[in-house]
Amino acid sequence: MYLTPQRILLAGATGLTGEHLLDRLLNEPTVECVLAPSRKPLAEHQRLENPVGQLASLLPQLSGKIDTAFCCLGSTLKDAGSQEAFRNVDHDLVVAFAARARELGARHLLVVSSLGADATSSIFYCRVKGEMEQALRAQDWPQLTIARPSQLLGPRMQVRPMERLTAPLSHLLPGKYRGISACTLAHALWRLALEEGEGTRVVESDELRKLGRN
Prior knowledge:
With about 210 residues, this protein is of the alpha/beta class. It has eight helices and nine strands.
């Protein structure tokens, strides 16, 4: 069964995936409003509400009924500067955003996690992503969709040399390990938002690519 979300809450609208998703949402005639808090102002749109500031400070101020929430927050250890700072964004802020979205009435949360997310992993990045997923499951969402993309492909504001080197090779990897464009991921997230369901669904990168191409 398919639903049409009317009022949407989006975190991470200035990121690689979030930019594409915001564009998609604002071009959907059935979407009544997108509430997208961000650190810097977004381009004005008649159906966009854009509180500007630090997300942690903005969360208590958000208001209005929300149907569906998307969380595209994410960093890297290098960009964050420390493990503590990375955890603050990719775990704590994601969980706080989700809790606020639930308070505003959202029934369905779609969150961008990562390939290899595992709370028991010896790799810090994957472990934090796994712990974040566990925390969201504990919030007992009526419908929770966890997207686990592989390496995201697409132009970024900040150049990441390692990603530039590995991106061409990621197309050669099999199945869920192959790179996925941020645009494709954004389209897949919207498709998934239209599907009514119960409980938690984990969507790996190969399935995300298929959904995003259709």
